[in-house]
Design brief:
Rossmann fold
Length: 214
């Protein structure tokens, strides 16, 4: 998937994937996954309010986002002073315990994530087509050889709708993370709460959560 696809989405403000409130599954599983971590990495973070929730728990939060417009919007909407600098191929927006790196996730280095022990992925894996998901997981584990991950995914009949977001079923999660301890902790059909997806012809839409450790 071309980077310009997501940059164009932010430019046109076609961001139906953005949630205005903290994701309920982050609240539900926060203690289990993140309570012992000093820092949390949020890949493809956009301008999610989940960043604020994690910061409010006293965590160091490191996000990576392709769109500088999304990162700038987060700082503006939360009235945060910006300390901005160039870090190699990335532009860093920093404030206290928050660091958002603007750039390509696949160009991150392990040295940039040394302060993180846990990962929160609500919108990264499901944003990628199947052809890129193995590469994503491989790079994630290279960045963090040991980590706890809260992964939120969607399941639906893929032929009924072209992603993103893409359907990623449990058997694929088990395969992608075959090296890790994978626990499926939540599955709920949310199609009645998502009329825009029902209008696109989906017969069901399962929201799923996994706690994964390696």
């Amino acid at each position: 998937m071309d980077k310009s696809f997501w940059l164009d989405k932010w430019e046109k403000q076609e961001i139906g994937f953005h949630l205005a409130q903290v994701h309920p599954l982050l609240k539900k599983y926060y203690q289990t996954v993140f309570s012992q971590a000093d820092g949390v990495f949020v890949p493809l973070c956009g301008k999610t309010t989940d960043l604020t929730f994690l910061l409010n728990q006293g965590k160091y939060v490191l996000g990576c986002e392709l769109s500088e417009k999304a990162v700038a919007a987060y700082f503006q909407e939360h009235r945060l002073e910006i300390k901005k600098q160039q870090l190699g191929e990335f532009v860093e927006y920093q404030n206290d315990h928050l660091s958002l790196l603007v750039g390509d996730f696949f160009k991150l280095s392990a040295a940039q994530l040394v302060g993180c022990q846990a990962i929160y992925d609500r919108a990264a894996l499901i944003a990628l087509p199947e052809s890129m998901r193995k590469q994503y997981v491989a790079h994630l584990t290279n960045l963090m050889p040991h980590a706890s991950l809260l992964l939120v995914t969607l399941e639906y009949p893929q032929p009924q709708m072209a992603g993103p977001p893409f359907s990623v079923e449990k058997k694929e999660i088990d395969s992608l993370f075959a090296f890790a301890e994978v626990n499926s902790v939540y599955t709920n059909n949310i199609i009645e709460k998502e009329p825009k997806f029902a209008a696109r012809g989906l017969s069901y839409l399962n929201e799923c959560a996994y706690i994964i450790r390696w």
